[in-house]
Amino acid sequence: MKLTVLGKYGPYGKAGDGCSSGYLVENSGDYLVLDMGCGTLSRLCGEVDINKIKHIFISHLHYDHTSDLLVFRYLLEELNHTVNIYTHKEDSDWYNILFTHPNFNVIDIDENTEITANSMKLTFLPMKHTVTDYAVIIKGDKTLCYTGDTLFNNNVIKCFEKSDCVLADCSKPSGFNAPHMTVDDAKYLAEKFPNTKIIATHQSADYNPKIDLADTSIISAEEKVTYEI
Predict the structure, then answer these.
(1) How confident is the model at residue 68 (pLDDT cuts 50, 70, 90)?
(2) Cα–Cα nearest to 31, from 48, 43, 17, 46
């Protein structure tokens, strides 16, 4: 199993090159996209033939995790290609704008949903954010969890208990006053789960968590880098 970071920033990319949230998982020749924030589509096209993309997970509906879905529709129309999108149903204008399209096969998920996406099995856990957000646990050759955006909560612990690697929203500075985990949360989780790889993501454009995580085993996500799970 491999994870490629297409974009790691939130709520907006770093000047010049940074993209907001988006990731590509590969397992036994099958692909799963995790979120599609601003700038991630062009990077996705550079990594894989889009006709091989059949499954997309959207953790929540904030713009920095969904905006490239709109332009993605143009490409799908040109290719005459349809993808499955797994996300929690929401009664909102943005949900309807995003997902009402013939090339999107939208499948509603919650904590009781189990999905088979070719060689990967997907289950989901609710997180704690300003809007409904779900983590996805991806079981393939290894088990990877992606938290989406979240404060620390008991389901984060469940993610770590189930996973070989967690791609976690835990890159904000100490004392950060918003619904995201901080580097302090990352350090706590690394100490509690020493055998679980942590890839810290959702970084702010003006803060590099590498300095505060330098003496830990935690990996600070790097864009356009592929990690072995």
Answers:
(1) very high
(2) 48
pLDDT, mean of residues 100-110: 97
Question: Is-contact 98 66, C-beta < 8 A?
Answer: yes
Instruction: State phi, psi for 27 to the nearest 5 degrees.
Output: -145, 115
Indicate the DSSP class of residue 172.
B
Check whether 17 has a pLDDT greater than 90: no
Q: CA nearest 194: which of 216, 168, 226?
A: 216
pLDDT band at 172 (very low <50, low <70, confident <90, very high): very high
94-103 contacts, C-beta under 8 A, 24 or more apart: 94/61, 94/66, 95/61, 97/70, 98/61, 98/66, 98/69, 98/70, 99/69, 101/73, 101/76, 103/73, 103/76, 103/77
